[in-house]
């Protein structure tokens, strides 16, 4: 189908736009969210297997044991990708499939699955984009301290080399980590994600060790001949509620440091910001950041992945408890969403994506960017005719693609866009209650149905632009 963005009666529909030649159009998923087969072919337990079985942690006690059964249905799913005309597919490798204990013996059967998936993608003309870590840490490593333990970063570099040895002859783009902010702050700060720890000191230790893991893995991959190395961040487009209020500006800077610059600066500039180090020191002894670590983290990047969904607005408010996922944010209040929201209650503000991309372009010049996730959760399912009419998702993606185009017009080196998600899946602590997919999944029958957004996206890809 062809759809346009809903507009008020007083305004015409936006004019058509075209993206640059070679712009990459893709879709993304993550291993624990879609694969299932949690106990098959030698896969070991991950922190999400444990967390999802902990009462009260995941909606309705849902787990990823079966998920979308992609482990068995990958050929069917790749055929759907080919039907949509995807140029690339971003998927993650499950570390516990490759090394069930996180270190030690390699599980060849786990590698075999990603070998088959990679060949199937290439046979259909779809470039595989591999993410080595999308949150499913082997439980054995967590039992030894997880990301709060420096040894996990060293183990990750070994794991990265193992996967590259098997797939490196066919995979050009390697993403080390997905959203280390979530792994550190949701996993060890607020505890709403696996492993469910609430400890601000461990949250900062995890953030650093994730950065270090990237640097160690990036260097190992480069030395092994990897062509394109990336990391995917989910930077927070944070703004002061009142830009004229110095206290609000200071609050926004603190949150920006904890959310963004703690990752951007060591990755791209080779040094943690001084104000961030001072903030960490107020929470815990920062001696876990050792001499030479920042140079390791500052491994050359070929592209920086950006995941974006919603902005944040903050203000100074004495006595405010702050947020556990921003350690040390006491005295700062986060404004509730205003205006239209998605099913996740996330505010929709496409212009904030343009501001984020131009900020990165300005502050970290020469960094090629890729939108590696963007999308919206809405509950629409099949109607009486079997079709899924999800106009709101079309409007969301359309508006954010226009925001991307605005950033391109301002000189941002933006090279592609991956829709999140290819299909409905296990949405972490939300279980199966939230649907981000452009493909509907019936979790009982495992039937896949292209939503109207998938059909619309197919036309976007075909035109390399919007009407």
From TrEMBL:
Tagged with keyword Zinc: no
Catalysis performed (reactions): Hydrolysis of terminal, non-reducing beta-D-glucosyl residues with release of beta-D-glucose
GO cellular component: cytosol
Gene3D superfamilies named in the record: Glycosidases
Organism: Actinoplanes missouriensis (strain ATCC 14538 / DSM 43046 / CBS 188.64 / JCM 3121 / NBRC 102363 / NCIMB 12654 / NRRL B-3342 / UNCC 431)
PANTHER family to which the protein is assigned, alphabetical: GLYCOSYL HYDROLASE (PTHR10353), LP05116P (PTHR10353:SF36)
EC number: 3.2.1.21
Coiled-coil ranges per UniProt: none
Entry protein name: Beta-glucosidase
Residues where substrate binds: 33, 134, 178, 309, 420, 427-428
Molecular function terms from GO: beta-glucosidase activity
Cross-referenced InterPro entries: GH, GH_1_N_CS, Glyco_hydro_1, Glyco_hydro_1_beta-glucosidase
Family membership noted in the UniProt record: Belongs to the glycosyl hydrolase 1 family.
Top-rank lineage group of the source organism: Bacteria
Catalytic-site annotation from UniProt: 179, 373
């Amino acid at each position: 189908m062809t759809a346009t963005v809903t507009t008020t009666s007083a305004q015409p529909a936006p004019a058509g736009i075209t993206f640059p030649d070679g712009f990459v159009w893709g879709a993304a998923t993550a291993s624990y969210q879609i694969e299932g087969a949690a106990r098959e072919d030698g896969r070991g337990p991950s922190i999400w297997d444990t967390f999802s079985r902990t009462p009260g942690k995941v909606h309705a006690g849902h787990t990823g044991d079966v998920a979308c059964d992609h482990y068995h249905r990958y050929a069917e799913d790749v055929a759907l990708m080919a039907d949509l005309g995807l140029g690339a597919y971003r998927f993650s490798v499950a570390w516990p499939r490759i090394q069930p204990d996180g270190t030690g013996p390699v599980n060849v059967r786990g590698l075999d699955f990603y070998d088959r998936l990679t060949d199937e993608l290439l046979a259909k003309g779809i470039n595989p984009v591999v993410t080595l870590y999308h949150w499913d840490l082997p439980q054995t490593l967590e039992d030894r301290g997880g990301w709060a333990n420096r040894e996990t970063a060293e183990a990750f570099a070994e794991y990265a080399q193992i996967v590259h040895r098997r797939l490196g002859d066919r995979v050009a783009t390697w993403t080390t980590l997905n959203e280390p902010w979530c792994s550190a702050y949701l996993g060890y700060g607020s505890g709403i994600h696996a492993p469910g720890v609430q400890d601000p000191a461990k949250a900062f230790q995890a953030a650093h060790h994730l950065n270090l893991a990237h640097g160690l893995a990036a260097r190992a991959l480069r030395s092994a001949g990897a062509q394109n190395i990336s990391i995917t961040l989910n930077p927070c487009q944070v703004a002061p509620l009142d830009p004229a209020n110095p206290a609000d500006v200071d609050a926004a800077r603190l949150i920006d440091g904890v959310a963004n610059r703690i990752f951007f600066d060591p990755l791209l500039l080779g040094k943690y910001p001084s104000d961030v180090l001072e903030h960490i020191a107020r929470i815990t002894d920062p001696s876990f950041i050792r001499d030479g670590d920042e140079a390791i983290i500052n491994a050359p990047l070929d592209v920086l992945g950006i995941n974006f969904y919603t902005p944040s607005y903050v203000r100074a408010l004495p006595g405010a408890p702050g947020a556990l996922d921003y350690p040390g944010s006491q005295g700062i209040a986060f404004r509730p969403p205003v205006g239209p929201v998605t099913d996740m209650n996330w505010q929709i503000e496409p212009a904030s994506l343009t501001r984020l991309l131009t900020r990165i372009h300005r502050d970290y010049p020469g960094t090629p960017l890729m939108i590696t996730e963007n999308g919206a959760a809405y509950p629409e399912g099949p109607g009486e005719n079997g079709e899924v009419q999800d106009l709101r998702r079309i409007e969301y993606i359309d508006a954010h693609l226009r925001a991307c185009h605005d950033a391109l017009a301002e000189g941002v080196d933006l090279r592609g866009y991956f829709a999140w998600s290819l299909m409905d899946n296990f949405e972490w602590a939300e279980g199966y209650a939230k649907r981000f997919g452009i493909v509907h999944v019936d979790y009982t029958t495992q039937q896949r149905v292209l939503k109207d957004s998938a059909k619309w996206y197919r036309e976007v890809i075909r035109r390399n632009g919007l009407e």
